Amino acid sequence: MNTTLTPEKLKQYVNLANRRLGTEVTYVTDDWFAEANRMLNPEAPVWQEGVYDDNGKWMDGWESRRKRQAGYDYAIIRLGVTGVIKAVDIDTRFFTGNYPPSASLQACYCPTTSNGDIGDPTADTEWSEILPAVNLQGDSHHLHAIDDRYTDQPWTHLRLNIFPDGGVARLRVYGVPYKDWSNPSADEQVDLVAALNGGRALACNNQHFGHMSNLIQPGKGINMGDGWETARRRTPGNDWVILALGHAGTIEEILIDTHHFKGNYPDKCSIQAACVTGGTDDQIETQSLYWQELLPQQKMQPNQEHSYKVEIKDLGPVTHVKINVFPDGGISRVRLMGKVAR
Q: Which DSSP symbol is given to 340?
């Protein structure tokens, strides 16, 4: 594991290989034992003792059969959102006598088609090796930073190569969604903080029951675990989370959804915001101490989407928001609808 990549650092990135974003395997050489798309599931892998299907032991991940000729197995993955990749975690949890001895990762960029869909690689596509072959161990995380030469360009597809065969429980690809912001018109309203538009969850004081990045995922939350929820507060104060917009913009409507949160929703909420022009993501918590109020404190209700328009203060274009919940509790989704700053 690369020691420069800490959990605190990784939480500032989006898992671009998350199936919830629309990521899927479009081609695989072999997935006899376990279907390749399983390794893209957002949940942690599980072990099911004594569970078998027609092809053998059921495994929570991608597993190919034992290779009996030269070559190796690979899977081509189309990312649900084009993104810049910073790090990758090849997770072999629960694969002990059946993990690949090594793996590598390649990437390519395919332009969108005339109908707006991402194209797929062809035999002439040029692939870049963004992670050279690395050794793997069984039942382990393998976290690696991507070579600096490849961390500033967007990719649409990945090719995970395993040598020569075996099983991978999960593939996590940490990065930043890429969006061409030259397209939206001056009058078009977009969700400025959506993960699919480049939004990121940067910091929070607590995420005991649900990760902060869930707030900006597409669609409605599927359950309480698919939101951001803090532990019960037993001291004075309130909980908070900081989100970075995909692009600076003027916020015109705020949607805060407490879907599924009935006995554990926040009593009230407020939002601060700022147009941040310097500093780093690691310093954003300190900077937020002096941000202005975008949304004054509002009463909240359980299992409901709250819409705020006239309550929003005119701060002009902003790049970051800090959502305060009083005193604690859970939120399913946050949408910040507005216009891109030119």
A: E
What is the pLDDT at residue 3? Answer: 42
Q: Which residues, 6 or more positions from 21, have their beta carbon under 8 angstroms from its beta carbon? A: 14, 79, 80, 81, 195, 196, 217, 218
- Using DSSP's 3-state secondary structure scheme, residue 153 falls into coil
Q: Is the dihedral of CA 288, 292, 298, 300 positive or negative?
A: negative
* Dihedral class, residue 213 (left if φ above 0, else alpha if ψ from -120 to 50, else beta): alpha
* Number of C-beta neighbours around residue 63 at 10 A: 30
Dist. CA 286–CA 288, nearest whole Å:
5
Cis peptide before 302 (omega within 30 of 0): no
Which ranges of the chain does DSSP label H, i.e. alpha helix?
A: 7-10, 284-287
* CA atoms within a 13 Å half-sphere pointing along the CA-CB vector of 116: 3
Q: Identify the pLDDT of residue 1.
A: 40
Helix (H) or strand (E) holding 157: strand 154-163
CA dist 114 and 43 (Å) reads: 34
Q: Which of 14, 24, 18, 19 is nearest to 86 (CA)?
A: 14
Q: What is the pLDDT of residue 183?
A: 72
The stretches in the chain having pLDDT less than 70 are 1-4, 7-8, 114, 116, 184-186
Distances (CA, A) of 132 to 23, 157, 159: 22, 16, 12
Please give the pLDDT value at position 8. Answer: 67
How far is Cα 61 from Cα 41, in angstroms, rounded to an integer?
9
Q: Exposed/middle/buried for 152, CB within 10 Å: 0-12, 13-18, 19+?
A: exposed
> Would you say the C-alpha torsion 26, 31, 32, 37 has a positive or negative sign?
negative
Closest CA to 42 of 96, 94, 84, 80: 80
Q: What is the pLDDT of residues 216-250, one digit of tens each?
A: 999 999 999 999 999 999 999 999 999 999 999 99
Instruction: For residues 189 and 254, give the distance between their C-alpha atoms in angstroms, rounded to a whole number.
Output: 12
